[in-house]
Amino acid sequence: MSQSTLTRSTASEDAMTSYDAADPANPANLRHVLSHVPTSVVVVTAMARGVPVGLTVGSFSSVSLDPPLVNFFIDLKSKTWLKLNEANTFTVNVLGKDHEHLCRAFSRPAADRFDGVDWTPSPSGDPVLREATVALECSRYKIDILGDHVQVVGRVRAMQAQAPDLPLVFYRGAFLEL
Question: pLDDT-based confidence at 26, cuts 50/70/90?
Answer without folding.
Answer: confident
